[in-house]
Structures are given as C-alpha cells and as structure tokens.
Write a structure and sequence with these properties.
Chain lengths: 842, 279
C-alpha cells in the first residue's frame, strides 16, 4: 500500500497545483517515513523546501484526524480530552520560530486546515504561556530553553502526553553547542513522556549525517540507534571563484584593504550583495571603508550581533524589501531566515571551513535550480592558499563539520535540577533516560552520581552543606526539591548561553558649556563586552557601529561615547565570531604547499613567494612539521608551521616558552597566527639544535600536554572565563534572583575567586572537570594541538637559516602589529609605575 | 639580563582571546631586561625608604607611625609587634550556601592558612582583626572543628582583638580573643568603619584600584592612604572590592589626594588615586 503512504490528500495536491508547484521527492519521502512511524533526518540545501517538508506530515495528519471522529486522549491527570499538542517545532533562533510560524499560516489558511499553531518564546506574555500549558495548540513553535522550562513543570506529562512529533530545525547548528546538549536531554525526557514520539531533523549538509541520525532517537543501553536518512537532491553546483586582484597581495593582516575598489565594482555589477567577514571589527572596518569610496551613494548597510536590535531589524526589513545593494555582515546572518534576492555572496578573508563557506554561499539565490554565485577575497598570501583549498572542497561538496559533542556535565547539572523541579525522580530511572540522549550515551554512572551530588549539596569532598541541600532523597528514594524557592530560581536561570557581560553604548548628547557632568540618555548604538571597556581609559577611541567613537565615561552599566574626528582608532576592537581554520582545510593547504604542481593554479605573486621559500629554505611534505630558526635584530627566532589555527598555536606557544625557559634558552615572547607560530628569545635555539643540545623531538614531545599544561591552565585567564560559564550553566552562580536582575558587576562573589579556591582545595571537582573539557575543544583547542603533536612525531624537519624565510614573513609581521599582552598583570603594573617615574623625574 | 629576570621564573602567560590576530605576550623578563635601571628607581620611589629589610616589606607612614604593608594585604606595626588584617569574612561560603548558592566551603580554611603564614612570618605580639571577621552573625557557630582549632592555635601566646564590624556587631562565643569597637595605641586608632579621623586605620570599604595599560586593565586590592589615615584591603578569600574612585573614598579623604598601594605578586605598587580608573 505504498500508494496510500505517499499520496497527498486532495486538498494538498490542489494547494500545490494552485501555486504551480509539485511536491518534491524528499517532501513525499518524509511523509512516507512519518506514516510508517519512523524518525528521520532530512538533509537538504537552502531553498529546497525543507521547512514545508518537515511540517507536511503534521499538516496531513491533523487534516485527516479532523475528518475522523474525535478521539479522547489521556491527559496524564486522569482526565481525557480531545487533541492536545501534536507537534513541537524547535529552532535555535526565536526569530526563526516566529518567521516559520508566519510562513506556515499561509498553507493552513489557504487549505482551511483546522489547525491552531502558536509560538512560545521569551517574548510570549505570561498569560498566554499559562494558557498554552492548560490549552495547548496543535503545533507549538519554540526554542530549546522554552522546552526545558515546559519540561520542568508539573504540567509536562499532561502537555506532552499527546505529542506525536518533534521537528528540529537547523539541527547541524544546534548540535554543536551546549544548547544541543540541553536539547538532547529534553528530547530524552519527551521520549519518556510520549513513547510513540517520532522526530524529524532538518539539516544542512554535514560531514557525518549518521551522528545527527543518532541524536534524533533514543539510544539503547550499550548500543546505537539511528533515524532514517533522507537526502534531497543537491542544488545546482555553485559558481565560486577567487577575486583575481590586480593589486599587490598583502603579506599579513585581515583587512583586504587592497581589494576595496574591486569589491565595490562587484557590488555595482550585482543587484544585492552579501559581504561576509569573520569578525565584528572587520565588519566595522569594511563598512566604513566602502562608504569612503561610495561615490555612487549605493545603499550599503552593516549587520552584526552587537548592534542594537532595532538597528538590525531596520537593516533586515530594508533587505527583505529589496532596498539594499549590499550588506556587510558577520555570521549573525549565517542562519536560516530568508533574505530575498541576493545574487552575490562575497566572502572577505579566509573561509575557515568548507561547510561554513557552503552555507554562506547558499545565502545567494534561494532558488534551488540556479547556481549560487560567490567570490572569495583573500586578505593575505596564506589566505590565497586557504581560499584555493576551500574552492576545491566546495567543488567536491566536501564537508568538514565537527563531530557530535560529548554532553557537558554542567548542562547535565542544570537538567537534573530541572527534572527535580518537574517531578521527583529516581536516580536509576533518570540515569537510564539521560543515557538515551546521544551526547550522553557513554556517560559513566559515577559522573552521573557526581552531578546529582553537585546539584544537591555542591559536590564537595568536605561535606559541609547537607543542611542547605537543594534537592534531597526521600524515603521512597526519589530526589525532590527542598523548597519551592529552588524551582523559582531554576526557572530564572535556565539556559546555556552565557553571554560575555555586555554594556550598552550610548552616544552622548553634546555637553553644554563645557560642563563636567555627563549628560544622561542619548541614542543607544549597541553593546560591547564589559572587559573591552575595562581596558580603555577615557579619551581612547575605537570603531563601533560604523563610526570612530571616543570613550567618555562609564556610568553604572552604560558606556558613554562621543563622535571622534580621529581617523585611526587608538584601540582596535578585536571581537566576535572567530572560527579556527578547520582541520580539513588545513590538511588541504598543507597538500598544496607540498606539491609544486598545484601552484600553477595560484596567482603569480603567490607562486613566486613559494618558489623563493623553496630556494631559501624548504617546503615540507604534507605531514611533516617545518621548524626554521634564524637570528634577527639581536634575538633568535624559532618559527614552525603546524597550520592548526590560532587557538591551538597560542596554546602551543605558551607551552613551548615554558619548556625553552626551563632549558635555559631565555624565551622572550611569541606570536601566533592561523598558520604559524613564532617564538623569540635570547638563546640561540638554532645553534643548540645543530649541536645536539636541543632536541626538537623532545621540545615538541606530546608530554608537554601533561604537567606543563596543567601548571599553565591553573593560572590562565581563559580557563577562568571558561569556568565562569560552567559555574553559571550548572547553577553554582545564579545570574538572576527573584525580584532583581544582577549583572556580574553587582554580584557579590566573583567566579575567579571561586575558581582559585576550588582548584586549590578540590582540583577534581566536577565543575573544574567540566571547565577543562570545554577548554580542550574551545578557547585552548588542546584536542587539536594533541592530534598535531602526535601526527608530527618523528617528522620534524629543522632548517637553520641566516635570516627570515619568505614563509615566516606573515607571522613575523604580526609581531609589530600586535599589542603584546602579558598574562602576568604585574608586568603591566611595573610598566604603569615606570611611566609614573618618568613623569616624576622629568 | 637583570637579576630580576634570573631570579623570577617566567610567569605563565595566556592570551586574551579575541584581542588580536596572533595574541602573544611579552615575557616579564623581556620588560625587565629592557629597563634594568629604572626598576631600581621605582623601588626607591614606592618604598619610601623602607625596603632594606626584605623585598617583601613596604612601609607606609600614617600620623608619623611607620607601618609595614604586606603584599598579602596585612599591616604590621613593628614598634608594637602588632599585625592587623581586615574584613576576613570567614564563613562567607556557608553564608551563601544557606541562601541557596552552594559556593565551595573552603574559604575559611584558605583565609586562615594565609593568616597562619603571616603570623609565622611576623610573629606578632598582638593581632587585630579589623571587623567583618565573619560574614554574618551565624558565622562563628558554622565554623568547622578544624577551622576553630586553627584559630585557637593562632591565638596562643598573643593578644587577639576582634574589632566589631557591621557584619559581626556582637561578640561571639567559642572563638577566643577579646571584642572591642575600637583600639587606640599611641597616635593610631583601629576601627572597622572609617570616619576620616586623623590617625585612623579602618577597613569596611574593601578598596581596589584599577590601572589600564595598553588596552588592558589590572584591578587589584589596595591600601588607600594619605599621611594621616589608611583604609585596609579586605583579606578574606571570597571578598570583592569597591573602586577607590567611588565617592565613598573621596568623602573620606576629602579629595583625591591619596595613594592607592596596589597589591602585586610580591610587592606593592603605589599610584596616585587620580591616576587610577573608576569602574
């Protein structure tokens, strides 16, 4: 009876036909899976009718259901009622949920389907939220956080008992973060509450679809289960090229200043252009520079995550209305929402990963059958190599999305408390339920018990807090909350997105008569990170919201700025959206370097650069690590080229300098970029290596990830920031209290103090373990460093040179450009004190 | 190479992520190596002549009394063998725990351990705890047996004065010592709440100072002092701070003509309050 399974009801066929559409094969395939009661993952490119495919089975089922006799369903409270919540849709962005709801209303209205659909986000009024719990719609569109809130309520069994389907949109993006962990745990709970539940995942193309398939279904103990995979026909092959610049290619830097004129010409020749950059400061810079040469007054706009929401909405609306010729944007525009007729995507700087690039390219031309057009603009010579590698990867549709996460323990802690808030639980049952979630499938019982202990009394070896427990085991063995207050505070602090503390930036009204008072009020330009402002002295200038601004004062939680006439900002704002070069692209870049035949495809200036490198030094085989040493200006340099991304290189730099120091080579500093690491010092490292007094194999030995790493981590500011996030997610530190909202500024306890105390007294505490796990893959990228160290064992090639090699120039140029930071804050105090003396002595 | 760079191991650095394309750092030794001579000048300036004893000691003169300010945040008055520490906030962790935030319960032991080291170093005849020694009135009764014992051991063979504070206004049982609102010796008066009187050594405000250098800020606890009065930094493990540019300090000192002696790793750094940043 496959016929019946794939056939659409007449009302639907007519609706498609009336619009001149044909149901697509993958839309019907999802319908068939749904009718067979199977969970499925749909992988489809942008513009493939993905959302409709996800909802079609629900719409059809609800339509058919309405034609039959009304059935009463159990509510889980001994009452029975009609219908109930049928489908839950979860998206990573609340704007996306709202957008999708709007798009769905059209077919529902046009086919006169008896379906009620509603959204539920942080913006939904309380009265409506309460009503939704008592009288749910057929389809509810929401976010992972709202799902967690709904689950942590006594109504959850009633609300979700009738649930037939969960649709997870942009799954490829959700699973990469702690929000994905939280979602997986919520999903595991839903499978318990509604055993017949099936899931539909919607995703862009990924490297390992099987992993996403696991995410969608409960994992059996010790085994593996997967949802069925449906792959939509790929769209037309995108047309991707690299800007063939006639200008001189810079050696270093990320501004792509040289290509501004050529980019402006591209904008002129196209209807609407999206210019993607990698960081917010690049967005600001590019936007400003384009307006500097915008003789035709083209409508060019700016869009990034820290601009004021109202300002972003204005740009989005103008974009949708087709009023803009170009938008300079960061990954804030990477996801989902439809932006009208973009006919060109320009990617400025390195693409960093082929999957990311493919998704950005997909923003151009939302029609499946026409090729998307994209131009890559490398901003320096190494980026030419990276762009070349990325274009080849796109041609093969090669994906490099990271593997599925291992579920974080801090998120689990939040979930465990949420479960107790919902209804009392037994450890055994919750452990089994949690292990059904794919990211937690391998969770050890001891870790689970550790987390429960943490939630209950803080998880301290010193059992001091039994009387202050948040959850406690009753005689029946069930854990329940000790006070209603605990539930209230849980609800106020839910979520896994810990933003850096942000301060509002206000443009100051002009001062009247040179008054020293800072006038209050003024237009809000957006938000900046608190720690960025902390480093500024009043009078410093920086670029923000497309202008050069002067920092005037900090009043409570607001930063007051004025417009500045300065042409160069004093303090560059390096922030936001930095992604490291993907392992996959890095390997391709190494391949290109190692193979002179591949150089033919490169621009002449780059080819020449590599030729000279080959002649002066050497270009190593793809899996070897080249280490060059040379003297320069009374210092000795060691430069290596691991191609593992800036984060991993920085970590390597920290560890190498510790070792060199110990071995008496007097290292003085280092600088890292995406491709290379340069360390400099007083001792002649080249000579020591040549004489056999320094073994590179030993210097780069994997054991540096042992004690050296531990010793460094203990004091690292990055580690403290990572810990803070874990402490907040796990609920150790609460950001919000009933009746008041506190920022970190007002919190009476600093997580740095807690970190210091904890690491001294209980180094194996569960939160420290969670923070270390985050650091390994996050800001310190230890995982990648460790893979590199093991890859190059026995494959290190040393070249001792008289002077700097061509390949080393880019990283050496970063040295002068960089503000050199000392981790040891005392260094800065010494320096500040020095200035004072200079003042006093002159 | 300067002596400093050889004596001091390379302090492990870390990048400030997001702050640049390459991140990176300059080792302390580089900065030291480039300016060996200035360091000596600076030491002279900030020590005000008190540095001959040991590199760990720096003197501050208040109402003509010469006090040694320890980088740990304690004050030692050699003339009377008196050691003062302020705002210990013992049992702050458990105080939060009682209100639902289960902070690590190790703060009391950690604070007492630092105090033990100080006492071993200075061997004072008198110890003055300058108020807010406990985070709340219930603190003394929540002390663990071990921590209670360490306090007893510390008190052995010396006078111990608990100055009352706003967090602990009442005398408590079982923690030894004597309780006083103020203590006056010669020209100096020790009390918790600063009143601005001449010769006053106070606590309560938890002074911190902030200096920015090359786009990065350093915020540290500090002694705030002019020639006639001094506010001590908080000593407790879990204590935050109030910026010395807050109006409370201007009110106290009358003007910004006071000095912040910021606590460094192994020495103090003196900055005019005007030079320090608010926030």
């Amino acid at each position: 009876m496959t016929e019946e399974h794939t056939q659409l009801p007449d009302a639907f066929t007519r609706w498609f036909a009336a619009r001149g559409w044909q149901p697509r094969a993958h839309q019907l395939a999802l319908l068939e899976k749904a009718r067979a009661g199977k969970s499925s993952l749909l992988i489809a490119p942008t513009g493939g009718g993905k959302t409709l495919a996800g909802f079609l089975p629900t719409l059809v089922e609800l339509y058919e259901e309405a034609a039959k006799d009304k059935k009463l369903v159990s509510t889980g409270r001994g009452i029975r009622r009609e219908g109930g919540l049928h489908t839950l849709y979860i998206s990573p962005l609340k704007a996306l949920a709202v957008d999708i709801a709007r798009n769905l209303e059209a077919p529902v209205a046009e086919m006169k389907l008896p379906i009620r659909l509603e959204t539920r986000t942080g913006d939904t009024p309380t009265s409506k939220r309460q009503r939704q719990r008592r009288d749910p719609p057929d389809i509810l569109l929401t976010t992972p956080e709202q799902l967690a809130l709904l689950l942590a309520s006594a109504d959850a069994p009633f609300l979700f008992g009738s649930l037939k389907r969960v649709i997870l949109d942009e799954l490829h993006s959700l699973v990469l973060s702690k929000r994905g962990d939280l979602l997986s745990l919520g999903l595991a709970r839903l499978f318990t509450l509604a055993p017949d539940l099936v899931t539909v995942g919607l995703s862009a193309t990924v490297a390992e679809p099987d992993e996403l398939c696991r995410f969608l279904v409960p994992q059996p103990p010790g085994g593996e289960a997967r949802a069925d995979l449906v792959i939509a026909r790929a769209g037309a092959q995108p047309d991707v090229s690299m800007l063939d610049t006639t200008e001189r290619l810079p050696w270093a830097g990320h501004s792509a200043r040289h290509a501004l004129g050529e980019m402006y010409d591209l904008i002129k020749r196209h209807k609407t252009t999206l210019l993607f950059v990698n960081t917010r400061s690049q967005a600001e810079f590019t936007f400003q520079s384009l307006w500097g040469i915008n003789d035709d007054n083209l409508a060019i706009a700016l869009h990034h995550g820290s601009l004021d929401v109202a300002q972003r909405r204005k740009v989005e609306d103008a974009m949708a209305a087709g009023k803009l010729r170009a938008v300079v944007c960061t990954s804030s525009l990477d996801l989902g929402i439809d932006w009208g007729d973009v006919d060109l995507v320009v990617n400025i700087g390195a693409p960093k990963g082929s999957s990311r690039l493919l998704q950005r390219i997909g923003r151009a031309n939302h029609r499946l059958d026409e090729p998307s057009k994209a131009v890559l603009v490398p901003s320096n010579r190494f980026e030419v190599l990276e762009c070349t590698a990325a274009i080849a990867a796109v041609a093969e549709n090669a994906q490099d999305t990271p593997p599925l996460r291992t579920g974080a323990l801090d998120v689990l802690a939040q979930h465990v408390l949420g479960r107790a808030v919902g209804e009392p639980f037994l450890s055994e049952e919750l452990f089994d339920e949690v292990r059904a979630a794919a990211p937690y499938a391998k969770l050890a019982r001891s870790d689970f018990d550790g987390v429960v202990d943490f939630v209950a009394t803080g998880g301290y070896a010193l059992k001091a807090y039994d009387r202050f427990a948040k959850i406690r085991q009753n005689k029946d063995g069930k854990w329940r909350i000790t006070h209603p207050n605990v539930a209230q505070r849980y609800r106020m602090n839910i979520g896994t997105i810990v933003e850096a503390d942000m301060l509002k930036v206000r443009l100051m009204r002009s001062r009247r008569g040179g008054s020293v008072m800072i006038p209050r009020g003024g237009r809000v330009l957006g938000q900046v990170e608190e720690y960025f402002i902390e480093g500024l002295t009043p009078g410093d200038t920086f670029v923000f919201a497309g202008e050069i601004l002067k920092y005037e004062a900090l009043v409570e939680n607001e930063v007051y700025v004025s417009r500045s006439s300065a042409t160069d900002p004093k303090v560059p704002a390096y922030e936001g959206g930095k992604f490291p070069l993907s392992t996959y692209l890095a390997a391709r870049v190494r391949d290109i370097l190692a193979d002179p035949k591949a150089w033919q495809a490169l621009p002449a200036q780059v080819r020449e650069w590599l030729e000279i490198q080959k002649w002066r030094s050497l270009l190593p085989p793809a899996n070897d690590l080249l280490v060059e040493t040379f003297p320069r200006a009374a210092k000795n340099y060691l430069v290596c080229y691991p191609f593992e991304g800036r984060l991993a290189h920085q970590t390597l730099g920290m560890l190498l300098t510790r070792r060199l120091e110990r071995w008496g080579l007097k290292p003085l500093g280092f600088v890292a970029n995406e491709y290379a690491l340069a360390v400099w010092g007083l001792g002649d490292m080249g000579l020591r290596i040549a004489k056999g007094g320094l073994s590179l194999a030993e210097l780069f030995a994997e054991d540096m990830l042992g004690d050296d790493l531990e010793a460094w981590l203990d004091e690292s500011a990055l580690m403290k920031r990572t810990f803070r996030n874990c402490a907040i997610i796990a609920g150790l530190i609460e950001r919000r209290f009933p009746g008041e909202e506190k920022s970190r500024r007002q919190l009476t306890i600093s997580t740095d103090l807690v970190y210091d105390v904890l690491r001294k007294h209980q180094a194996d505490h569960i939160l420290l373990r969670a923070a270390r796990a985050d650091a390994a893959s996050g800001l310190l990228d230890i995982k990648r460093l460790s893979e590199m160290l093991s890859r190059v064992q026995g494959r290190i090639v040393h070249k001792r040179l008289d002077h700097v090699s061509p390949l080393a120039v880019p990283v050496m140029l970063e040295i002068g450009r960089e503000t050199i930071y000392g981790e040891a804050a005392d260094t800065l105090l010494v320096e500040a004190a020095d200035e004072l003396i200079k003042e006093a002595m002159n | 190479m300067s002596k400093l760079a050889q004596a001091k191991p390379l302090t492990p650095p870390s990048p400030l992520e997001g702050e640049g394309r390459g991140g990176g750092y300059a080792a302390r030794s580089e900065l030291a190596a480039s300016r060996p001579s200035r360091r000596a000048e600076r030491v002279d300036l900030s020590l005000k002549g008190g540095g001959e004893e040991s590199a760990h000691r720096f003197s501050i003169t208040v109402s003509n009394a010469t006090l040694i300010a320890d980088p740990c945040g304690a004050l030692y008055w050699p003339e009377h063998g008196l050691l003062a520490v302020s705002d210990l906030h013992l049992e702050k962790g458990s105080s939060f725990a009682a209100r639902g935030m289960l902070l690590p319960p190790y703060d009391t032991a950690a604070t007492l351990a630092r105090l033990t080291k100080l006492i071993a170093h200075y061997a004072p005849r008198i110890v003055v705890a300058l108020g807010d020694s406990f985070h709340d009135g219930g603190g003394p009764s929540r002390l663990s047996a071990e921590d209670r014992d360490s306090i007893t051991v510390l008190q052995r063979g010396r006078d111990w004065i608990w100055i009352t504070g706003n967090h602990d206004p009442e005398p408590a049982d079982g923690i030894g010592g004597v309780f006083q609102h103020t203590l006056t010796i010669d020209a100096l008066t020790f009390r918790h709440l600063p009143s601005g009187a001449a010769g006053e050594i106070a606590g309560h405000l938890h002074p911190v100072a902030k200096i920015a250098q090359r786009g990065r800020a350093v915020r540290r606890r500090c002694f705030a002092a002019d020639d006639t009065r001094l506010v001590m930094p908080a000593f407790g493990e879990f204590t935050g701070g109030l910026n010395i540019r807050d109006a409370a300090f201007a009110d106290l000192f009358g003007t910004l003509a006071f000095t912040a002696h910021m606590l460094g790793e192994d020495r103090l750094y003196a900055f005019a309050a005007k030079r320090c940043l608010p926030g």
